[in-house]
């Protein structure tokens, strides 16, 4: 701090602050962010190298954004997460969202699909189409994207253990239509480590699971140049209770594990790093969230340059999708969720996201109803077109408080990364339960703060009121499973059974060896083998993970 500023501050504290506090005390003796970072009354400039800490937009260390002009030439992709029931029902919702201005699709899959079970499997009963769309085969995929040009829309698929199979289905559909697969653009989540750490939709042990992730990275680098082979996700860890600092730290530690695996496969870092993408949460502590995104970019750029020796500027850019915080939504007074989502979306935009999903107001109760999904999309459109926040790059850059938070978050994240590295890396840390314990402790502290009313959640622990009536909700009836099984049986009857069995045998043989599995999975889905059949084939070779 400049000496004259220091002297001025002392004078201010003596002559201005002290008399004011004598008249009225502050609301709390201590202010902190949700990550526990202390918050002072106000902040002054920090003496440091501007270029080293911040730089210019589109240049290392990318704190101020990964593009020179950010949203001045193109808004972020407005990508609404959707999927439920059958492929027909989800296709109707996608067309609805496209008609109202969404610029990217984001597919939610039901739990059986995520876990590698067909809709007729006994464990699928009661779950088919409930939290996402049921996809069993290429026939379902064709219906899901009926009337949608795959070369003109970017598609994100939130799928992990079965990600290589669903990506194969998407590519097979483009081939069936005679399209150029090299023009396909989008993302497959394919982040299995966070499943082991926080979410639980894993199938195979860690070794084979990491192999599948790496197979997708390797195969897409040669065959789908515009496709993101992984979306390294902090979102679900944040939903499980992680702080903003933990979200960034654990996500980047997982990213290091994927980069290491790809390099061990023989891939030069610059051949794939530019297509890695990230997926972060946006919660209510507005300025901490903005700073979190800025800190993540600086950490990633330094890590890729200094640890991995990446030369291509694209390899140094942390590109991320953001979704507003599902865990922050309340079942009480659901209209309050519109306000929460707006604040969270604004934090993601001011933090420099590349694409964004805004949750719907009724998601604490059910899957979004059509009008709620439209309002969530309209929220993004209002922010884009009516607020002016997209008219300049990094509008909050230079805020003394935001810069302080950015530095503090980065410092805390590097500390976590060192601890994880000393534990043997992300896989070892997860196997030892380190992530899980840290997240559980943070979740407990947060819940206790709510119960003690140290943290106010409007409409939940303060400002409660009697709800007049339940809003109209989207209900998924159990006839979905019947309709899915009918199409599944039709697929099995109409396909060439011999071709399907031979393709599954090729998958098993490749799994036993070291070949990249993607060409064999693509062959299997084109032979109309099902998601469950392919997953079961791999289960027989690799077994299943048991926690």
Overview of this protein structure:
It is a single chain. By secondary structure, the protein is of the alpha/beta class. The chain is 49% helix and 7% strand. The protein has helices spanning 3-23, 50-53, 87-99, 111-115, 138-144, 163-176, 192-199, 206-223, 235-239, 244-264, 286-307, 336-350, 370-386, 400-422, 426-431, 434-451, 479-494, 497-512, 518-526, 531-542; strands spanning 77-82, 104-108, 154-158, 186-188, 227-228, 231-233, 277-282, 320-324, 355-357. It has a nine-stranded parallel β-sheet with strand order 5-4-3-2-1-9-8-7-6. Helix 12 links the parallel strand 8 and strand 9 (355-357). It starts with a helix and ends in a 5-residue tail after the last helix. 47% of the residues are buried. The model has no long low-confidence stretch (mean pLDDT 95).
Annotation keywords:
single chain; 547 residues; 9-stranded parallel sheet; 20 helices; 49% helix
Mean pLDDT: 95
Major β-sheet profile: 9 strands, parallel
Task: Give the SSE string.
Answer: HHEHEHHEHEHHEEHHEHEHEHHHHHHHH
Portion in strands: 5-15%
Radius of gyration: 24 Å
Helical/strand content category = alpha/beta
Number of helices: 20
Number of strands: 9
Which residue ranges are poorly predicted, with pLDDT under 50 across at least 5 consecutive positions?
Answer: none
Strand order of the largest sheet: 5-4-3-2-1-9-8-7-6
Instruction: Assign a percent range to the helix content.
Output: 40-55%
**C-alpha termini separation:** 51 Å
Coarse morphology: globular
Produce the secondary structure layout.
Blueprint: H1 3-23, H2 50-53, E1 77-82, H3 87-99, E2 104-108, H4 111-115, H5 138-144, E3 154-158, H6 163-176, E4 186-188, H7 192-199, H8 206-223, E5 227-228, E6 231-233, H9 235-239, H10 244-264, E7 277-282, H11 286-307, E8 320-324, H12 336-350, E9 355-357, H13 370-386, H14 400-422, H15 426-431, H16 434-451, H17 479-494, H18 497-512, H19 518-526, H20 531-542
Parallel strand pairs: 1-2, 1-9, 2-3, 3-4, 4-5, 6-7, 7-8, 8-9
Helix pairs in contact: 3-5, 6-19, 10-11, 10-14, 11-12, 11-14, 12-13, 18-19, 18-20
């Amino acid at each position: 701090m400049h000496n004259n500023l220091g002297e001025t501050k002392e004078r201010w504290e003596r002559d201005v602050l002290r008399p004011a506090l004598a008249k009225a005390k502050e609301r709390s003796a201590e202010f902190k962010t949700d990550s526990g970072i202390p918050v002072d009354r106000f902040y002054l400039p920090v003496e440091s190298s501007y270029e080293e800490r911040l730089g210019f937009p589109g240049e290392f260390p990318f704190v101020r954004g990964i593009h020179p002009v950010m949203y001045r030439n193109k808004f972020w992709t407005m990508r609404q997460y959707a999927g439920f029931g059958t492929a027909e029902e989800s296709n109707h919702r996608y067309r609805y969202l496209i008609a109202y201005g969404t610029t990217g699709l984001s597919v939610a899959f039901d739990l059986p699909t995520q876990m590698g079970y067909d809709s007729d499997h006994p464990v699928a009963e009661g779950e088919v189409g409930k939290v996402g769309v049921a996809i069993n085969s290429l026939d379902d995929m064709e219906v899901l994207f009926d009337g949608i040009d795959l070369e003109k829309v970017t598609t994100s698929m939130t799928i992990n253990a079965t990600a290589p199979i669903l990506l194969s289905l998407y590519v097979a559909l483009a081939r069936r239509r005679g399209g150029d697969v090299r023009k396909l653009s989008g993302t497959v989540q394919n982040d299995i480590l966070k499943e082991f750490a926080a979410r639980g939709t894993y199938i195979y042990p860690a070794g084979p699971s990491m192999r599948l992730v790496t197979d997708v990275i390797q195969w897409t680098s040669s065959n789908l140049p515009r496709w993101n082979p992984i979306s390294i996700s902090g979102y679900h860890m944040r939903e499980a209770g992680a702080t903003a600092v933990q979200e960034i730290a654990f996500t980047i530690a997982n990213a290091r594990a994927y980069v290491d695996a790809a390099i061990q496969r023989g891939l030069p870092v610059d051949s794939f790093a530019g297509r890695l993408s990230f997926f972060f949460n946006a919660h209510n502590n507005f300025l901490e969230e903005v700073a979190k995104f800025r800190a993540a970019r600086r950490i990633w750029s330094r890590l890729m340059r200094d640890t991995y020796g990446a030369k291509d500027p694209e390899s140094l850019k942390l590109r991320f999708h953001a979704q507003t915080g599902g865990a922050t939504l309340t079942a009480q007074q659901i209209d309050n969720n519109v306000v929460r989502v707006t604040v969270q979306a604004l934090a993601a935009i001011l933090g420099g996201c590349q694409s964004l999903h805004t949750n719907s107001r009724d998601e604490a109760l059910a899957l979004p109803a059509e009008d709620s999904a439209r309002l969530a999309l309209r929220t993004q459109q209002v922010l884009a077109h009516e607020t002016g926040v997209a008219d300049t790059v990094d509008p909050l850059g230079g805020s003394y408080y935001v810069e302080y938070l950015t530095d503090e978050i980065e410092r805390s994240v590097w500390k976590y990364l060192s601890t994880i590295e000393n534990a043997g890396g992300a896989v070892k840390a997860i196997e030892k339960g380190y992530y899980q314990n840290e997240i559980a402790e943070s979740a407990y502290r947060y819940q206790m703060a709510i119960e003690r009313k140290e943290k106010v959640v409007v409409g939940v622990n303060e400002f409660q009121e009697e709800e007049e009536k339940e809003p109209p909700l989207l209900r998924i009836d159990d006839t979905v499973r019947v309709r899915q099984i009918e199409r599944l049986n039709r697929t099995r009857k109409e396909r060439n059974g011999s071709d399907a069995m031979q393709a599954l045998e090729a998958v098993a043989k490749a799994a036993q060896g070291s070949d990249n599995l993607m060409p064999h999975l693509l062959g299997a889905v084109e032979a109309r083998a099902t998601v469950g059949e392919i997953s079961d084939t791999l289960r027989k070779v690799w077994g299943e993970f048991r926690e």
